[in-house]
Amino acid sequence: MTPQTLPEYTANNGRTDIGRSYELEVRKGKKGTAILYHHGMETERVDLSDTPAKRVFIVRLVERNVNQTRLAKKLNISRQTIHNYVERKEHFGLEGLINSYHVSPGTNLPEQRKKNMADRPTGDLSRKLEEIRREERLEAKKAQESKPTQRSLPFTAEERDEMKGISPEEQPFAEQHDWLESRYAGAFVYVIHLFSKSNLLSLIGKHFGNSYKIFMVFVLMAARNIRSLEQLKNVRSREAGIVIGLGRIPSKPVVWDWFYRAAHLNVAQKVLNDFFRHQIRGGLVGCFFLFTDGHLLPYTGKEQVHCGYNTQRSIPFPGQTNMVTCDTTGRIVDFDIQEGTGNLRNYIPLFADKWKGDIPENALHVFDREGYGSDFFFGLKSKGICFVTWDKYVKHRLLDEIEDERFTEELEFNGKQYRYFEQTKEFTASTNAGKQTFSLRHFILWNIGAKRRTAGLAYTGDHDITGDDCVSGILNRWGASENTFKHIKERHPYHYHPGFKLVTSEKQDVANPILTGLKKLIKTTRSTLVKLKAKLTDTKPILNKDGSARKNSVHLNLKNEIAEKEALLGDRREKAREEPERVNTSDIEDYRKYKRIDNEGKKLFDFITSNVWNARKDMIDLLRPVWNQENEVVDLFYAITECQGWISSNSEEVRVRLEPLEQPRRRLAQEQLCRKLTYLAARLPIGKLLVMEVGEDPR
Question: Is pLDDT above 80 for 133?
Fold first, then answer.
């Protein structure tokens, strides 16, 4: 088989493609003229006989990430020479790179040389570079020898203390560089917002120290809808790394090492609590309406786990349930991942106890019909937890018979007209003290346009909460909780679960198979009884001449059979009452035990996803004053986040310039958003200011 040679990348016009849409042409040989083209347009000419200009030209091209091999071949120099030029500028600055000077006309040559010698580094710079490289190799070798071959789990208390805070040399955006091109520049809007409003860097630095870097990768994933860590292989590592302050996104094994170092600290829930507490106390989320709903997190692995419920397909499905609480605008207030189907009735009281003192007492919890039940309502009422929900068992025929004049209150919601009236509804709950009767506010709603009527329930205690507030909460439940989760899944990898770890579940109980069998038999017996009684009504008793019932008649046989079935039904019901609902399988030999999914890594990822989602909500609100078309404002925001641009970093600021959107009105909105984000004055611990602007290529 004939070996193939690499292409020359040289067109007929003498230009050589050196990458990044750059082409290079050299005229008149090694000491001639180099002409640089970008997208086919000439941008720069350099006299190759001018050594300082040639060196600066080469280093500038390397900083633009061109192909160094093709550049060296075109200029007829070695790759090592290019590497030396880059390192000389890095270690000795521009003066060290040039290392030779031209004399201006009319200037005395000895005086000029004396002045230049005072400014430039002295000695043989090549020998100095060799010494620097030698020291770097020794340091790298020592670090490798001191590094453990395998990470023991978990981290010790001493290691945790050492990781508190981010060391100065590991700070984000510590690298200083000139303008560099990045196709991910639009994601910087999230970085500014999270660093200023959510105080993200301080929070993760306090808990994770130098292991904060994995969270910056998570920010990029959530911002650009990168669905897994494996998909980072499709990302331009340098272009993405400079936008999130890491310089370069490393290889997949290094990223996974970052993830496990963070996950093994086992502080995910504490981080979530600190984050949500900061949002609640800082007024970043609303606390009057709290919409709670459960959402399936499916599991497709081989292990046996408890099942959640897929409402779209109406079937049980292996996985977990994410109980998410949102405010009216859809911002995430808190969430909890529960095993199997989850328990909404337990979650809401726990949520209220968890944030007692941070959330006002008159906060209205809104949930769907899954939480309907008199015992649950009585428990919330006893704790003083206000709530609104739909009435589950509604007879629409009776509602349609209500006179129109009774609907005295009017309300407009989402452009639709509603009328309603309020009454009370009695409930009876079973408690330790016996039966307890209580009443709830009962709202009968009438959608004028759709000509539909339904009902809702509310408990507001002694708080001054109007009927309009209760009805608004009922009508807004679908949009605030259900649609929020649906949109998160479309725009962000909210279902992603990095680093699956399964442990033996504490819940090893299953539905009692004996009880299940008895219930089926009871159902069959009841059905048979109904048929027998219906047949009995169609038969007449047959009597003898003396008035006694004739033996073996159909009527008498049916009565006897019914009596036997009723006795059998009573016996089976008695046995069913003695059987427990669920039985523990942990003591059964060779039984396949249930596994529980460890959610430490999932919570860390969802911490960033929730943060990004709430930041997205806030930035869309910043766009609305300059973009009055509500149906386009979300798409406009995502168009801005998808913009490519340029980023520079010096000792004072990190500046990102986005390429302008094409339409003038959209560009104006883009500029206004960048100005508002810059006015947040996000500043890094090392003192750098984060700045965003819109403009043309600054190079």
Answer: no
